[in-house]
């Protein structure tokens, strides 16, 4: 089992290059199944979840050629399988995108119920509602999802809750439906727009991605194309927070600053300095930091995937602040790990109250999920003494070469493999 040993107290300084967006890549990879041709994806992050999804497609009969760690060519011309019951499929939350892609291509799909991080109940009822509205029959029995349609017919679909997964999944199916599908109360996240742009490049007809109403006019044929994945908003935000927490000075390259506005706004409110360039951001940590109140919201609000790292930063700030988690109901499990370090955090339901100006002491921490893992690493960077972080499998799912990037920024961090 791998673990990280971190010596705290060293400001991060230098430059870091952000990888392609994990959440976009996990929507783009299954989308290649819709093209009866060759797709070339560039700027894919070299992380476990992405590599696992690529392996799943290979087992389904997609011809996969890796040009390098970040560029992969997919040829789905001869794919005939719509059933994928491999164990790897069951381990991935994003495997549910296979439902939309395979329904669109074959009008049939058989896959296991998806897994992923345990951060609360994440039902796929909105996905199923969308598929059924398009004319599919969806059954869940013994942990297996089976969906079938004689044909998919465009219709009006209103999502009861804003769901990134349901928005992308319904788009994947609807692009090959007959007629027009109008998806209301759609998610507006950058990776929703990225998937829509990719589908359009393959020949789909999607309008309105990035707004809460998306119109999809079905097409009969979709062709291969070349596409570059957008930068990872969450990885960028993680390094922004790490720079502020360590009182560092970091230039974060290969980003889209507009995607980071909610994070930048909170860091500036806390007292950090942020300088924006065309495709990079410079974050300069300042003393003293001031506590703030944060509520996680769908994009363009503050992202739920960054509330855990922000909790560490708020432990450094003066005064008391709150984090209200409005997306997931079970996303404060990491708080117990921070309390072990001396943090003063009280959780009441979906609200965490954080008393700042606490000195964190290095100890052994467990990464309870992907984003909590990033928070544990940042906690180690600011803590007195040494911190050991275990359960790195979660971090490796979503962060490319995290310890190497931190080393280049001056962190004292080493991975020990056993």
How is the main sheet built? 4 strands, mixed
Instruction: Enumerate how many helices there are, as a single number.
Output: 14
Mean model confidence by pLDDT: 95
Tertiary shape: globular
Structural class: alpha+beta
State the end-to-end distance: 5 Å
Stretches with pLDDT under 50, minimum 5 residues: none
Strand content: 25-35%
EC number: 2.5.1.7
Enzyme class: transferase
Protein name: UDP-N-acetylglucosamine 1-carboxyvinyltransferase
Pathway: Cell wall biogenesis; peptidoglycan biosynthesis
Describe this structure in words.
The protein is α+β, with helices and mostly antiparallel strands. It has helices at 22-31, 48-59, 87-91, 97-106, 125-133, 164-174, 190-201, 233-245, 261-270, 307-316, 335-340, 370-382, 392-398, 402-408, and strands spanning 3-7, 13-17, 38-42, 63-68, 71-75, 108-112, 137-141, 144-148, 156-158, 180-184, 205-207, 213-217, 226-228, 249-253, 273-276, 280-284, 293-295, 320-324, 344-348, 351-355, 364-366, 386-390, 412-416. Helix 1 runs parallel beside helix 7 and helix 5 (125-133) packs parallel to helix 6 (164-174). The longest helix is centred in the middle third of the chain and has 13 residues, at 233-245. This is UDP-N-acetylglucosamine 1-carboxyvinyltransferase. The active site is at residue 117. Keywords: Cell cycle, Cell division, Cell shape, Cell wall biogenesis/degradation, Cytoplasm, Peptidoglycan synthesis, Pyruvate, Transferase.
Keywords:
RNA3'P_cycl/enolpyr_Trfase_a/b; globular; 4-stranded mixed β-sheet; UDP-N-acetylglucosamine 1-carboxyvinyltransferase; cell cycle; cell wall biogenesis/degradation; 418 residues; cell shape
């Amino acid at each position: 089992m791998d673990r990280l040993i971190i010596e705290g107290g060293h400001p991060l300084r230098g430059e870091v290059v952000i990888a392609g967006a994990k959440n976009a890549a996990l929507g783009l990879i299954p989308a290649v199944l819709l093209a009866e041709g060759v797709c070339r994806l560039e700027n894919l992050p070299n992380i476990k979840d992405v590599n696992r999804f690529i392996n799943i497609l290979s087992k389904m009969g997609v011809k996969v050629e890796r040009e390098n760690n970040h560029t992969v060519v997919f040829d789905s011309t001869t794919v005939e399988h719509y059933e994928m019951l491999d164990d790897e499929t069951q381990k991935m939350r994003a495997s549910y995108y296979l439902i939309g892609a395979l329904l669109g291509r074959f009008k049939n799909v058989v896959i296991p119920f998806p897994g992923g991080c345990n951060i609360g109940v994440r039902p796929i009822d909105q996905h199923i509602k969308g598929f059924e509205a398009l004319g599919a029959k969806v059954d869940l029995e013994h942990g297996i999802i089976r969906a079938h349609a004689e044909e998919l017919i465009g219709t009006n679909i209103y999502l009861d809750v804003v769901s990134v997964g349901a928005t992308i999944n319904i788009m994947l199916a609807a692009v090959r439906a007959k007629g027009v599908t109008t998806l209301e109360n759609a998610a507006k996240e950058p990776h929703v727009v990225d998937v829509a742009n990719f589908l359009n490049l393959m020949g789909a007809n999607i309008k309105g991605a990035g707004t809460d109403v998306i119109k999809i006019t079905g097409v009969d044929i979709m062709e291969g194309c070349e596409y570059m994945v957008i930068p990872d908003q969450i990885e960028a935000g993680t390094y922004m927070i790490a720079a502020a927490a360590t009182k560092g000075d970091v230039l974060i390259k290969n980003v889209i600053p507009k995607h980071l506005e909610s994070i930048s706004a909170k860091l500036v409110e806390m007292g950090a300095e942020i300088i924006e360039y065309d495709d990079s951001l410079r974050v300069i940590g300042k003393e003293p930091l001031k506590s703030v109140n944060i509520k996680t919201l769908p994009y363009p609000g503050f992202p739920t995937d960054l509330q855990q790292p922000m909790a560490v930063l708020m432990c450094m700030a003066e005064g008391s602040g709150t984090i209200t988690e409005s997306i997931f109901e079970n996303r404060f499990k990491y708080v117990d790990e921070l309390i072990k370090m001396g943090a003063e955090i009280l959780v009441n339901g979906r609200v965490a109250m954080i008393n700042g100006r606490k000195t964190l002491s290095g100890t052994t921490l467990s990464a309870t999920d992907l984003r909590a893992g990033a928070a544990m690493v940042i906690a180690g960077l600011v803590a007195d003494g040494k911190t050991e972080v275990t359960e790195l499998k979660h971090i490796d799912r979503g962060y490319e070469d995290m310890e190497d990037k931190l080393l280049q920024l001056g962190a004292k961090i080493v991975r020990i493999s056993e």
